[in-house]
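Person: At home tonight, work slowly through the protein below, taking as long as you need, and write a paragraph about the fold.
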Amino acid sequence: MDNSIFENTQFPYNIATESSNEPLKILQINLAREKAATNQRQETASTIKPDVILVQEQYINNNVIPGIPQTWKTFSSSNQKAAILIPSPKLKPALLATKVNMVALKIQTSSFPITIVSAYSSPAQNVHTTLQEIQEIISSLPEEKIIIGADLNGHNTLWGYRSNDNRGKDILDFILANNLNIINKPDAIPTFQRNNSVGWPDLTLCSQSLIDSSINWEVLEEISLSDHRYIETTIASTVANQFNKRYKTRHGNHLRFLNILGKEIYHLERKIKAARNSGELNNATIELQTLIINACSKSFKIKKQLLITKPNWWTEQLEIHKKKVRALRRRAQRAPEIERQARYQVFKKEKAKYEGHIKQARNIGWRKFCSAASHPYGKQYKAAFRKSVFPSQIPYLKTETQREVCKRQHKTSWTRFSFPLPFPQITI
């Protein structure tokens, strides 16, 4: 097909631009490979409403990250120990690089484009491997605004530790060599706590060109069910979202649409038939598309864009239990030295009960979701093919065929499962 007739032609698109007065909000967390922490991530996102989530050491099941809604965009490093999640369907990120220990993407704010990096370096790994991967991104984007969320497991007094180690010195040399700024506050509460051990391994860095922007960095009190805490970074630059308008066409007003369209359709039909060259045909096409868009706007309501919602298995009882666990942790932190150990034991026992309740609520929610399905090849069947079903949840699938298909799927190493051949026959 000759595409030359479309050159220099601006066809109308049904695109709307939506700006928010809220600053760009970035959430950072090391999930410590905890299943409960991964399950609760969506609920936390619905409360804090971040634009971007930087994740390290997330829980992996069958080489897939479970518990992520379909509407979220996910970008992972090659070893899947670092990831960037975009909860908002309105944000349009561009993937820049995927390396073994890090992933980088770019988003457009109202003021400037910004590159976001998530990285992880295990204490048993040479930190220079991860630093070199980050270095390659920085070198390829000179003078651009970059923000880095990374768990590099290095000790240095500049980000909270009481002493320095060789790993921390190497990280500091890397920061100075690349003209980066440490956003962490040295007097902040620990970002990591396990039993009596505390630390500040989670770093947030930014380029020199971004330091002029108003940046706020805070370690949150939100329960994460990981031995790391959530970190919230806000940048004073709003996000401008472009999205395609989608109309509610299932609720009537079709006659009104036809009446509006019918007034001009015969004129356009004659205009298309009379077209003698590509320019006249393009003009008629543009006029037709514009007429259809205007008729839809006058006849139908626009579908609302999806917001970050709580998972459907989340209950009021879980919300109350979460607040109780958070209160017990706060009480333990503020207790006198002589009582602190005992209070932490009470907190840990309640936290273990809370994790069990989350697992139970998730399984019950999946059971209700499958038993209420009216079609055997509905959402529950598609969820099985997305490998978001745990083996313990397979018995709740509605039909024997679905259960068998899902069992076979969990025994394979395929990242996506197509319909089996021959197509299963189900008697309804």
About this structure: Residues 104 and 130 are 13 Å apart (CA to CA).
